[in-house]
Amino acid sequence: MQRRTFLTGLAALAATGPAAAQMKMDGMQHDMPDMGGHAGHDMGASTSATPVLPEGEALRNLTRLANESTAPGTFRAKLAAQPAVARFAEGIDTPILGYNGMSPGPLIEVNEGDSVEIEFGNNIPGEESTIHWHGMPVPADQDGNPMDAVTSGSSRTYAFDLPEGSAAPYWYHPHPHGKTAEQVYRGLAGVFLVKPKVDPIPVEYGDTVLMFTDLRLAADGTIPASTMADMMNGRVGDHVLVNGQKNPSLALKLGEKRRLRLYNATNARYLRLTFENASMVVVGTDGGLLEKPVAIDEILLAPAERAELVVTFEKPGAAILRTLDYERGWMGPGKPEDAGLALLTANVSETPADPVPPLPEKLRSIKPLGTAAVTRRFVFTEKMEMATGGMSTGSHDVDMGSGGMAMNSDQMKMEFFINGVAFDMNRVDVVSKVGDVELWEVVNQSDMDHPFHVHGTQFQVVEHERNGKAMKPAYLSWKDTVNVVQGETVRLLLRQDLPGRRMYHCHILEHEDLGMMGVLDVQA
Ligand code: C2O
Ligand code: CU
Ligand code: CU
After folding, report:
1. How far out from the chain centre does Cα 145 lie?
2. Which CATH architecture has domain 374-523?
């Protein structure tokens, strides 16, 4: 049904040639080689070679944000979002946005129980921004909601206390109305680690953050604007980077065990991952450790999801973290080749590693949230409309030639809905009560997967229902983002412990910007 609307739209495009919309069509144009015609400004760039990124450099650790406070249990620092220049390819400068000039932004590491105070300066010319603390239990008015935008040239302080038991691999990124996707793909996102008082994972395994981001570079080194295909599917770049590097390397000894914290901080790329020549055990998810380690062969990380792994390197030679094929429901032409990519290469020597303690059998306990007081339903749908007959006038028109149809940006509309409506930050969609356990049914009636995310808390997935069959997750865990496959219903239990307005949305950031978001008002 919705798919037909989409495909009709695409067919119309293919038949009539490119339209100059405010979302540029040129990327789509070169994804559809038989479309003919000539489009806009990026075409020249995309026909020349795109920059080659170096591979195999030693994995960099993310730069840490220094604590300016000397008082115990407090963390104080500044983060400024600002234009910066990055060098991804030899001799080519890329203008980006960075936090304190860096992309990924500096790594913030604090301990549970700490008080945090971060002064945020928005130095992005002409754009609002915020910092959202993804997954973290921070008060609603400190959580960087789109309603609390920081205007260009101004600053504000975010302050919150992190409760005991909140240790987890969180992250931070902008959340301004309608601009989240762009500010993130231009470079704004960082890791926020909250460490526990006592960590059951042996310290000998190290603690390595692998933050995946997605980069598209034009031949001149700039980051091109998004195309219509990007808006539909979410923007997928040309290079998956790890801590800002392409396929970096790790030098390891035989038998070495490593704790790896994987972050999918891409706008829209699904990462189904396997580690060739190494064995993986998952020990944690978005909201921290599992109850016990679970051996796995592969793991799917939808946009915004995280996983903590303990990986053992038992064979000498190259052990490669590689992507596998995943069908997430691509709309239209131009589906990226995303299987078989080498994201990280571990070079394992013949020298045996020093013996290390084994992974404990029990990591912590997770209490099931229990029985829900309320059940709610959230239905995802999508719509793409190509208005016909609306021959328009005005400077944005493109003459489609002898076909005799003109289109402009007003006539082409793509929308993503939750419960039939697009996001409105002045509307409250759901009212709930602090401390109530709720059962949320997230129903995906669209033709592509959508990763569902809720602010302010961590939830527990109860089951995935597909074609009338319900499946329990393989293990109990805390999550703030869960992938909802096309046609699937996901049931989850959640409780909000802090009052105020919270967002829930699809974490394909283009979909969020195009309306797939709602407002939850949690009342005391
Ligand atoms: Cu990563 Cu609204 O969040
Ligand atoms: Cu969030
Ligand atoms: Cu989506």
Report:
1. 17
2. Sandwich (2.60)
